[in-house]
Amino acid sequence: TIVHVHGRQVLDSRGNPTVEVEVGLDSGAFASAAVPSGASTGEHEAVELRDGGEAWGGKAVARAVDHVNGEIADRITGLDARDQRAVDLAMIEIDGTATKARLGANAILGASLATAKAAAADAGVPLYRWIGGANAHVLPVPLMNVVNGGAHAQNSLDFQEFMLVPGGAETFSEALRIGVETYHALEALLKERGLSTSVGDEGGFAPDLGSAYDACAAILDAAERAGHRDKVAIALDPATSELFHDGAYVLERQGGTLDGNGMIDLWADLADRFPIVSIEDGLAENDWATWQTLTDRLGGRLQLVGDDLFVTNVEFLRRGIAEKVGNAILVKVNQIGSLSETLDTIELAQRNGYATIISHRSGETEDATIADLAVATNSGQIKTGAPARSDRTAKYNQLLRIEDQLGAQAAFPGWDAFPRARS
Ligand code: PGA
Ligand code: ZN
């Protein structure tokens, strides 16, 4: 039984305020959870409540914290923490909006995740096992964002993320080693070329490379140098909703404008030249008709991930399934704002053959819940940044702990996580 609910404002990895919530049970079990925050957010995401005004750049979350300590605490105190769906539904009901705009998705999500963690502590089982049950055993292939651009960096790259995918590894820890060694080789290579080794919001380097072609080539050069060229592939998240203006894709930093079909041609050409296994938000969130064409043309050989497009929401995903748009979904807990709804979205995706990639936000905290969520749902893929910076490594370190705990039971899918790219 929940006896204690307390929210407070803490900081995220960009130095912006965010919500942390503690939940305590009558048994003495206790847990806290902190809420992440995006920069290139989808238009239809659940609403992150911020105070506005002068202080904290308008980003304070005192109102959301007040809602945790007021209405949410009043409503969920006395509920059974093991009954996650009832707790989440109670909060959704008192919020009363479709987008959690009144209480704030940040307030509701914090309480939702802290409830799950407290229930796991009470049951004396790890979070991944509490959420996923006896069959939770698959460690995810990490999609490691080693070159940052777009809204996450001030360099010359229009596209947001260039990720290293160490799918040739036998285990999660080997995948992490391949990622780390390639990341450091990339750092050395950029230094030699006189390029910046400063990092972007997700810990990847943010050099002034000329184009997506140069970024992909640099990553493969680094993998070659580290001795891992045959074990890696590339995943892209160009986050093109950010580039879509008046029906056209404006590549400002690189110079040039493309229409939707031009973008598809670009992805096809990149996939011909480089070992690309996954492209996320290759088209904009409101460009559904062109998304259909993209899926028709490239869906047979690439994972096509909807992030801004689906916003972890069953309604948008249902439309995608019906209209044959995309074949994978990025899963971000704060896009929808509760654990139960996140699990609903994952279930719908998996039942319909859509791959699920559990994901961080560009603004993160030391909270590593998504690592457990990836294993709980046997998703097989996680996106949680470069293998550097504590906000990102917190998740990788938690996965190392889980792998260690599972021992011989830990499975690692490797390239099997990308069935489309293999054929
Ligand atoms: P965001 O970026 O957290 O800034 O939205 C991550 C992504 O687009 O996948
Ligand atoms: Zn994205």
UniProtKB/TrEMBL annotation:
Subcellular location per the Swiss-Prot or TrEMBL entry: Cytoplasm; Secreted; Cell surface
Domain called Enolase C-terminal TIM barrel: residue spans: 136-420
Free-text remark on how the cofactor is bound: Binds a second Mg(2+) ion via substrate during catalysis. Mg(2+) is required for catalysis and for stabilizing the dimer.
Keyword set, alphabetical order: Cytoplasm, Glycolysis, Lyase, Magnesium, Metal-binding, Pyruvate, Secreted
Biological process terms in GO annotation: glycolytic process
This enzyme's EC code(s): 4.2.1.11
Cofactors demanded by this protein: Mg(2+)
Positions contributing to (2R)-2-phosphoglycerate binding: Q160, K332, R361, S362, K383
Catalytic-site annotation from UniProt: E202, K332
Pathway: Carbohydrate degradation; glycolysis; pyruvate from D-glyceraldehyde 3-phosphate: step 4/5
Keyword Metal-binding: yes
Catalysis performed (reactions): (2R)-2-phosphoglycerate = phosphoenolpyruvate + H2O
Binding residues annotated for substrate, in chain numbering: H152, E161, E280, D307, S359, H360, R361, S362, K383
GO molecular function: magnesium ion binding; phosphopyruvate hydratase activity
Domain Enolase N-terminal: 2-131
Gene Ontology CC entries for this record: cell surface; extracellular region; phosphopyruvate hydratase complex
Enzymatic class: lyase
Keyword Flavoprotein: no
Gene3D superfamilies: Enolase-like C-terminal domain (3.20.20.120), Enolase-like, N-terminal domain (3.30.390.10)
Binding site for Mg(2+): D237, E280, D307
NCBIfam families, A to Z: eno
Annotated PANTHER family: ENOLASE (PTHR11902)
Family note: Belongs to the enolase family.
Task of the protein: Catalyzes the reversible conversion of 2-phosphoglycerate (2-PG) into phosphoenolpyruvate (PEP). It is essential for the degradation of carbohydrates via glycolysis.
Listed name of the protein: Enolase
Organism the protein comes from: Gaiella occulta
